[in-house]
Design brief:
alpha+beta, Alpha-Beta Plaits, 2 domains, 11 helices
């Protein structure tokens, strides 16, 4: 049994020691290390329960966050220096299995066929790239990027609600035409991942105004209103993912 294990009184202490070691071993994105599955695994280890399910869950979470298998296993190797030695191989196998389940799962369509906008999943991948680039440069993502959110309000449902989104998507593409990522979050919400600059407030306002004008001229759209705003990006990709879930409702 490792010496550090005897010094660990509870799961919180184990998690803190683990995070320090992971950082020393080169975990690239410190703000994204913490996951609920990290806590679950630490609790299983301290309570001497079978850690397989928690470790497998952690592997799935790491893959979903865009962390590679090599970095995921390096992180687990840091943990195995703190826990009983006979857990090392089991932890590596469980984490690898969980990671592969997500990494090799069939991918959903990246493009919505009606609006031509990319999916929420693709936007999450792009956000992961942006946050990793920000971490590499030591610059907060909120200072360099933001989301422009456009939401339609309509009394219609189903196809009647989706058709106005086609019009609004066209309006947004005409404003954000310099490589920004335009994603469909739901049948009434579009998000644009773009760089922050002096022109962004004006472009966001133009997108809302142009979308409303085009809908007003469309006889099939019905009574629809368009709201738009700039949504700042939070400190980590995990928080950004949670924010997108809220915006999608």
């Amino acid at each position: 049994m490792n010496r550090a294990w005897r010094q660990t009184a509870d799961s919180e202490a184990l998690r803190e020691q683990w995070q320090v070691l992971s950082s020393e071993l080169g975990w690239a994105y410190a703000s994204d290390w913490q996951q609920d599955s990290v806590d679950a695994l630490c609790e299983a280890m301290v309570e001497l329960r079978d850690p397989w399910d928690a470790a497998e869950r952690l592997g799935r979470d790491r893959a979903a966050a865009g962390v590679g298998l090599a970095e995921t296993l390096s992180d687990i190797d840091a943990l195995t220096t703190l826990v009983p030695d006979d857990n090392a191989e089991q932890l590596r196998r469980a984490v690898s299995l969980g990671w592969s389940e997500v990494a090799t799962a069939p991918q959903v369509s990246l493009i919505d066929p009606m609006t031509g906008l990319v999916s929420l999943g693709y936007l999450q991948l792009r956000l992961g790239e942006v946050y990793r680039a920000g971490a590499g440069m030591g610059r907060p993502v909120g200072a360099s990027h933001a989301l422009v959110i456009v939401r339609i309000r309509s009394t219609q449902t189903g196809l009647g609600r989706r058709l106005p989104m086609v019009v609004v998507a066209d309006a947004l593409r005409s404003v954000f035409d310099a490589g920004e990522t335009l994603a469909l979050l739901s049948d009434s919400v579009i998000a644009v991942l773009c760089r922050r600059d002096q022109r962004l407030p004006a472009r966001a306002g133009l997108a809302q105004t142009l979308g409303q004008r085009m809908l007003d001229r469309d006889e099939l759209a019905g009574p629809v209103s368009v709201a738009g705003w700039i949504e700042p990006l939070p400190g980590s990709v995990a928080l950004a993912t949670a924010m997108l879930a809220d915006l999608s409702r």
